[in-house]
Amino acid sequence: MEDNNNIVFKATNNGLILIMNESDDFEKIYGQVEKRLNAAGRFFKGSSLAVRYRGKKFTEDEEEKLRRLMEEKTEAEIKSFEEDKGYDVKIPDKNFEIEENDEPGQYFSSFYFRDIEEGITRFYKGTVRSGQLISFNGNVVILGDVNPGAEIQAAGNIIVLGYLRGIVHAGMDGNKEAVVVALNLQPVQLRIANIITRPPDGTENKGAIVPEIAYIKDDQVYIERLLPQR
Q1: Bridge-partner residues for 153, per DSSP?
Q2: Of 53, 67, 221, 230, which is the most exposed, with the fewest CB atoms less than 10 Å away?
Q3: Sign of the torsion angle spanned by Cα atoms 17, 18, 22, 26
């Protein structure tokens, strides 16, 4: 599957960075941003974001058009929209593999999450069903749901753009910097490196889209919302 969209969204601790090609005109960039947000804008719903952009110069009018577009598509508060100056910008290489599945994933996005180390990534498009095992010596991104009885293993990070209800093991080679991210985090078992945990009983999000991140700190697994509440 070929993706000609050159826009990269990168989440940070206090907002979002848009990375784009200098050679693309405003209309093309506007359309590409709109396409990305149509696919995954709901991920930012209810948050408050400071947005910066790299790789392209915009007029004040163009900045305002993009800011309004982002507010409309994300249903988030866009506190600011301004150029992130002083960077030599390159669009990342698309060095990943996509495995097609007969059922399209519920969510599809090329968003990069905060504090996640980039590397070789395997993308799986579709629902991972009970009895299936996906294992990869790098990062794994699931473009869909992980059902109970399914298992995901990765030497790096695991990102699920959907519901995570199965078993996941990130940093399986002992990498304690690995993280697990999901739009709805309800794993039967969650393991990072050699540390195992599971969400406490009674904390299910009941189908709500509540993006969360699991990470290791002081040899314990912590789970928190990926984006702050308003």
Answers
A1: 135, 169
A2: 230
A3: negative
What whole-number distance in Å separates Cα of residue 70 and Cα of residue 223? 27
Q: How far is residue 187's CA from residue 174's CA, in Å, rounded to a whole number?
A: 20
CATH of domain 96-107+115-225: 2.160.20.70
Contact 145, 127 (CB under 8 A): yes
Q: What is the CATH code for 8-83?
A: 3.30.750
DSSP for 64-97, written as a single string: HHHHHHHHHHH-SEEEEEEE--S----PPP--EE
Q: Where in the chain is the domain with CATH 3.30.750?
A: 8-83
Distance CA 107, CA 104 (A): 9
| pLDDT one-digit tens code per residue, 171-228 | 999 999 899 999 999 999 999 999 998 765 555 555 667 888 898 888 888 888 876 5
Q: Please give the angle made by the CA atoms of 103, 133 and 112, to the nearest 5 degrees.
A: 70
Tokens of 212: 């969360």
Contacts of 3 (CB under 8 A, 6+ apart): 94, 110
